[in-house]
Amino acid sequence: MTTLNPYLSFQKNAREAMTFYQSVLGGSLDIATFKDFPDMPHEASDEDLVMHAYLHTEDGIQLMGADTPAGVPYSPPAGVALSLEGTDEQTLTGQWNALADGGTVSMPLAAAPWGGGKFGMLTDKFGVAWYVTIDSSDS
């Protein structure tokens, strides 16, 4: 079996971002800092930064992230969007609202142009792009 899991890079706010995503998506969040792995080369100033965070939910969402350590170039996420899709309109609308809070909505969550549900696009307060699709139960 092979899986494809998003791995997000942050600059000194991975803990805040991943904790936020846990509050939106639920699930269990494991966080390890550079300090937790003394054999991993890192600057002393990076000790409390997130070396690896792993969020996994009961419905199968897996999202990982880390802080970019000193000396490694950082580029904000670009050209990729995370896509949430399902039929539970109440849950997905709540997740949309939470992700949109403090972010930028580029396409409001509304009737999908292709019919059969709702669709919206936004960039959250951490610069991560999200697509949310709510499939209607009768499609």
From TrEMBL:
SUPFAM superfamilies: Glyoxalase/Bleomycin resistance protein/Dihydroxybiphenyl dioxygenase. It holds the Pfam family 3-dmu-9_3-mt. This is VOC family protein. Residues 5-132 form the PhnB-like domain. InterPro entries: Glyas_Bleomycin-R_OHBP_Dase (IPR029068), PhnB-like (IPR028973). It comes from Microbacterium protaetiae.
